[in-house]
Design brief:
The complex is a heterotrimer of chains A (499), B (128) and C (422).
Chain A lengths: L1 E7 L3 H10 L6 E4 L16 E2 L10 H9 L3 H8 L3 E2 L4 E5 L2 H16 L6 E3 L1 H7 L9 E5 L3 E3 L1 H14 L3 E3 L4 E7 L2 E7 L2 E10 L5 H5 L9 E11 L10 E3 L10 E4 L5 E4 L3 E2 L10 H15 L9 E12 L5 E4 L6 E5 L5 H17 L28 H10 L6 E3 L4 E2 H8 L8 H8 L11 H13 L18 E2 L3 H5 L10
Parallel strand pairs in A: 1-2, 1-12, 2-9, 5-14, 12-20
Antiparallel strand pairs in A: 3-8, 4-8, 5-7, 6-7, 10-11, 11-12, 13-16, 13-17, 13-18, 14-15, 15-16, 19-20, 21-22
Helix pairs in contact in A: 1-6, 1-9, 2-9, 11-12, 11-13
Chain B lengths: L4 E7 L8 E7 L2 E6 L4 H12 L2 E2 L2 E7 L5 E6 L3 E2 L3 H9 L2 E3 L7 E3 L9 E3 L10
Parallel strand pairs in B: 5-8
Antiparallel strand pairs in B: 1-2, 2-3, 4-7, 5-6, 6-10, 9-10
Chain C lengths: L2 E9 L3 H12 L5 E4 L15 E3 L8 E2 H13 L4 E3 L3 E6 L3 E6 L3 E12 L3 E3 L2 H4 L9 E3 H11 L1 E2 L3 E5 L3 H12 L3 E6 L9 H8 L6 E2 L2 E7 L6 E6 L12 E4 L2 E4 L3 E3 L2 H5 L24 E3 L10 H19 L4 E11 L3 E5 L2 E5 L5 E8 L3 E10 L4 E10 L5 E6 L9 E8 L1
Parallel strand pairs in C: 1-2, 1-8, 2-5, 8-20, 10-18, 12-13, 12-18, 13-14, 21-28
Antiparallel strand pairs in C: 3-4, 6-7, 7-8, 9-19, 15-16, 16-17, 21-23, 22-24, 24-27, 25-26, 25-28
Helix pairs in contact in C: 1-2, 1-8, 4-5, 5-6
Chain lengths: 499, 128, 422
């Protein structure tokens, strides 16, 4: 197989880069090692679109997040990505030290060219957030902070890229990079060799591993785990802005905010770990986040019960704490886009533009003329629950599957699930369908729709139900058919729990 | 040679009290029963000790039906010790739709003398 | 958009909906519609292939499908309309209901009264926030029951069950019979919440251990479940350090509680009771919105389907009385309250004078297991109206108290229910 530009990683960064370059007559391929795009850091984060008021504007990440902010409005309109541009954020303070930090942040923000920052007193603060802990005394309000649906952004960028000719190869892991005469020639994957002129390393948590395939590197990607609570939509109106608690050396502070979909998201802590695959939540962290932040800010929120789920995200933190977006030092044609921790999501359009610049500056024989049939948008996703009844009926008349409701909690039809399975980046497992349609994101967490979604996957993909997975690889939902005689014979050696 | 007296405790399932009924016995002969608080409990413990029986419910594979499985039960309680033997036999049973509730799916299941009957009616699946 | 008219719409075709619709028909209501989201009537009973149903109502021991069949057969002899594969998606004021199916699309129903019979859903691992990985192999006992009894698959081979509720106990037996190894059942409370009969016939019969005061404290597995950490808990349900033990398994089933399914009720702004998680109702099972009634698991989580049937018959009868303007309001509404030792009581209000009923049935649960208690019903002045002696009470067993209406004086404003030892 052959391509001009190979992007390693189908997260929001890899997809944004593909989206950016897809307007030109370039042959572009994304390789993604998981069974779906958006399965790394892009899948589990705070969904915030930071304007950059409290970043160090002299760092690369600072420059990029400041540049990126104004691009989101058009991008999200064209690509139909749920985005609340002016949710607004409030860093809520209880003590004098908090006030000191707020003043520093305002200075920083104004230095970065951010307008509209102001400190609000107790009365105004509680007017803006009526359910906030009454002991909160003041707040730093930033009207520019936004929130986005990160799954949908990742997917929309990648889908637009595919519609514009980009290839996305799932379940494809880069095992080696072939270099000859100091230039990148090809990558070896588990699905064969791909000849390429340029490799863009957007491999997130594994960017160091990929970078080290071409040369000795001077950075390491160390995961920083953050855990979250996602509250039931019933609580969606409790909090009106993104509310911050006090920042620390390694994080902007914990946040609680209403998501674009109407849930309440609260988190996250910041814990350096070694294992890049450790997405587990821990009792201590969840207790800490609840007791020190959630309960502290909004004491009416329960510890469990009306919690939809808890989860952990891993930030890909590079040595030096800044983004590393640069050529490999000793090999031509290899571009690292590494260490994209927060504000990575918020910087994605600017990162993509910077990478375009780097690719151009290679002065390779690459056709940067614009595609004739380039489309800047994608087809509007069909979300029946958001449509007026008459429009739904038009769709159901054309395709009765839109009239069969599969996920009762989020009102998702069979037609929408089948569409997801056959979309430009096909959903081939339960979680991939969940991210695209919301089936399984509700209160019963797939209790009702799970067996029905499994059945649809079985039929649409023509596979045995025993092969359906939750999230790819070996995550099978079922074990075997019942009525198995071998099990009936093997009872004798059954082990029970002994305390 | 005289047998040693043993005690077996049987939990009565007749009502939420769940009395622990003590059965003093030599082998299978009951010497004394205590701990029950009503006649039903005594009767239950006697039966449960001498010959415990259970109604077995399960499913069998059904072909050409609107559903892939037909729920079944033993028409009467069978000996508790025969349960797994019956399950093995049930594994191998396949029936064809239509089946009416009450139909005998297999008589003398597992050699118990008891019929295995359908507990649901399943019609033939409509041709797609 | 298609529009149709009915006298009564029943939302849900399980045991509650079936009984309510049949009783409404018996009370003379002409146009009745049942909307059922599944492909058949019977609701959850269709996957409950075990027996133990109907001992009270039919004086026979039936399996779930057999119990449902009794009502489905009766229904077939009536002109009650049934729409299968139909989901009610909205309820608006003045009797407007919106539903959708593949044949009619989104359509509107105008009705004089509605009966909510949507049942309940299961509490999830996620709602308990059990820490650890998020592999496949974790599901609620009810979902496993559907896979095993309706679809024909085993969710796993080495199984740990969290929660000693009846669904978990039943599945312990079911999975064992199908050949899986159920390694044990863990229950966080110091008592089992299921029927003793199930403990004996589902666990003891198969030497499956039940460990009280235990829970799952962590879940392990990158893709498929590999094991769970279990631990003992103290009186405040916190993990006791150093009691953790790793148990290898490929499946974790959760049987940790049922929650009435009230999404629609919330959309309709029906007032809910935070204790039952279901609508607040009067003795006629009428909710805070006069034309909407509720019965069965959507109102309160029942243990016996027989009680679901009886409660639904009340709702069906009452909805009929309502549309015929036959309800006679009491001079004073009686509010029903209860002391801390009681979990909840249904109904929460008594609004009517009834010439037909002789008793009011109170359904309630206690908070803690106890023996030899008196359940005392007092009026607002503290005078004892009546009391009931109970040998054994436990939160896992709903109590039904029959209070003669003759004991409820005209000027009564409040009934308070309490428990004393004695």
């Amino acid at each position: 197989m052959q391509t001009d530009i190979l992007i390693v990683g189908g997260g929001v960064i890899g997809s944004a880069i593909a989206y950016q370059l897809a307007k030109y007559n370039l042959d572009i391929t994304i390789v993604e090692k998981e069974s779906d795009i958006c399965m790394g850091s892009s899948k589990a984060n705070s969904s915030m679109i930071h304007d950059g008021y409290n970043v160090d504007g002299s760092t690369l990440k600072g420059k990029l997040v400041l540049k990126a902010n104004s691009y989101f409005e058009n991008l999200c309109r064209n690509l139909y990505v749920p985005y609340v541009k002016n949710l607004g954020s409030i860093f809520v303070g209880f003590g004098d030290n908090d006030l000191k930090i707020m003043k520093e942040q305002i200075n920083n923000g104004e230095k970065n060219g951010i307008q509209g920052l102001k400190i609000v007193g107790k009365e105004k603060l509680h007017q803006m957030e009526p359910n906030l802990n009454p002991n909160a005394r003041f707040g730093l309000y930033n009207p520019n902070t936004g929130t986005i649906n990160p799954f949908e952004l990742n997917r929309a960028l990648a889908e637009n890229a595919v519609l514009n000719g980009v290839k996305v190869l799932l379940n494809t892991e880069v095992q080696n990079v072939i270099v000859r005469d100091g230039k990148v020639k090809a990558v070896q994957t588990n699905n064969g060799l791909i000849r390429t002129k340029v490799v863009i390393n957007a491999a997130g948590l594994y960017a160091d591993k990929i970078a080290a395939m071409v040369e000795k590197i001077d950075f390491e990607i160390k995961p920083r785990r953050g855990q979250y609570f996602l509250y039931d939509k019933k609580w969606g109106n409790l909090v009106k802005h993104a509310i911050y608690s006090a920042p620390t050396k390694v994080s902007k502070g914990m946040i609680i905010l209403p998501t674009t979909e109407g849930n309440l998201l609260a988190g996250s802590n910041a814990e350096s770990i070694n294992d890049k695959e450790n997405f587990a939540t821990t009792f201590d962290a969840l207790e800490g986040i609840y007791n020190n932040m959630i309960f502290h800010l909004f004491p009416m929120l329960p510890r469990n019960g009306e919690v939809i789920t808890t989860f952990a995200g891993l930030r890909a933190v590079a040595t030096g704490e800044d983004f590393i977006i640069d050529y490999a030092k000793t090999v031509k044609g290899f571009i690292n886009v590494a260490g994209i921790q927060s504000p990575g999501l918020s910087s994605s359009p600017a990162i993509a533009m910077m990478v375009e610049g780097l690719v151009r500056d290679l002065h390779y024989d690459l056709d940067f003329t614009e595609k004739g049939n380039y489309r800047v948008d994608r087809p509007k996703p069909l979300i029946l629950r958001d449509l007026p009844y008459e429009e739904r009926n038009e769709l159901i008349k054309r395709n009765p599957d839109y009239g069969t409701i599969i996920c009762r909690c989020e009102t998702v039809s069979k037609g929408e699930i089948i569409d997801a399975i056959h979309s430009p980046i096909p959903a081939t497992n339960i979680d991939a369908i969940k991210r695209r349609t919301r089936a399984g994101m509700g209160r019963c967490q797939s209790g009702f729709c799970g067996p029905r979604v499994l059945n649809i996957l079985e039929n649409e993909l023509n596979i045995s139900p025993l092969k359906v997975t939750k999230k790819g690889k070996e995550s099978y939902v079922l074990a075997m058919n019942n009525k198995d005689l071998s099990l009936q014979e093997g009872r004798r050696n059954y082990e029970k729990i002994e305390l | 040679m005289k047998e040693v007296a043993e005690e077996t405790i049987i939990i009565c399932i007749g009502c939420p009290k769940g009395c622990n009924i003590h059965v003093l016995h030599e082998g299978k002969s009951i010497l004394k029963i205590g701990g029950y608080t009503c006649k039903k409990g005594l009767k239950y413990a006697q039966n449960e000790f001498i010959a415990p029986k259970r109604i077995l419910t399960s499913t069998v594979i059904i072909r050409n039906g609107t559903l892939p499985l037909l729920p079944v039960k033993t028409k009467n309680a069978i000996s508790k010790g025969k349960i797994f033997e019956c399950m093995k036999e049930i594994c191998g049973i396949t029936v064809k739709a239509p089946i009416a509730l009450g139909t005998v799916v297999k008589s003398d299941i597992g050699g118990t003398g008891v019929d295995l009957v359908a507990t649901k009616s399943i019609n033939v699946a409509p041709i797609a | 958009m298609k529009k149709s008219n009915y006298d009564i719409v029943v939302i849900g075709g399980g045991p509650a909906g079936l009984a309510a619709a049949l009783e409404a028909k018996r009370s003379g209501v002409k146009k009745i519609l049942i909307c059922e989201r599944g492909s058949s009537l019977g609701g959850i009973l269709e996957q409950c292939i075990h027996n133990g149903f109907g001992l009270q109502y039919f004086k026979e021991e039936l399996t779930g499908p057999e119990y449902a069949d009794r009502f489905i057969k009766k229904l077939e002899g009536t002109d009650i309309d049934v729409k299968l594969n139909t989901m009610v998606i909205d309820i608006f004021g003045k009797g407007r209901i919106i539903a959708v199916n593949r044949v009619e699309g989104v359509f509107e129903i105008e009705t004089k009264a509605a009966i909510l019979a949507m049942g309940c859903r299961e509490r999830t691992r996620e709602a308990l926030t059990i820490p650890g990985d998020r592999p496949s192999g974790i599901m609620t006992a009810g979902t496993a029951q559907r896979y095993v009894n309706v679809e024909g698959y085993l969710p796993g081979k080495e199984i740990v069950i969290l929660g000693s509720g009846d669904i978990g106990l039943i599945m312990a037996r079911r999975l064992t019979l199908e050949g899986a190894n159920v390694k044990g059942v863990l229950e966080i409370m110091p008592y089992s919440t299921g029927l003793i009969r199930n403990k004996v016939q589902c666990l003891d019969d198969f030497q499956i251990p039940l460990y009280l005061n235990h829970t799952v404290s962590c879940i392990h597995g990158k893709e498929r479940l590999e094991g769970v950490t279990i631990a003992e808990v103290d009186k405040s349900l916190k993990v006791i350090p150093k009691t953790e033990k790793y148990i290898k398994c490929d499946t974790l089933l959760l049987s940790v509680g049922l929650i009435p399914e009230n999404e629609l009720s919330q959309k309709a702004n029906i007032k809910l009771d935070s204790a039952t998680k279901g609508p607040i109702v009067n003795e006629k099972r009428q909710t805070s919105i006069p034309w909407i009634f509720a019965s069965g698991n959507v109102l309160q989580v029942h243990d016996l389907v027989d009680n679901v049937t009886e409660e639904s018959e009340i709702a069906g009868r009452s909805a009929a009385e309502y549309i015929n303007n036959q309800l006679i309001v009491r001079r004073k509404k009686i509010s029903v309250t209860y002391t801390k030792s009681i979990g909840y009581v249904v109904p929460q209000f008594i609004n009517f004078n009834d010439t037909k009923e002789k008793v009011i049935k109170f359904y309630m649960r206690v908070r803690h297991p106890d023996k030899n208690v008196n359940i005392i019903v007092k009026d607002n002045l503290g005078k004892v109206i009546t009391y009931f002696k109970k040998d054994t009470v436990t939160p896992g067993s709903m109590l039904v108290l029959l209070v003669p209406i003759s004991l409820l004086q005209d000027n009564l404003e409040n009934i308070n229910i309490s428990i004393t030892r004695g």
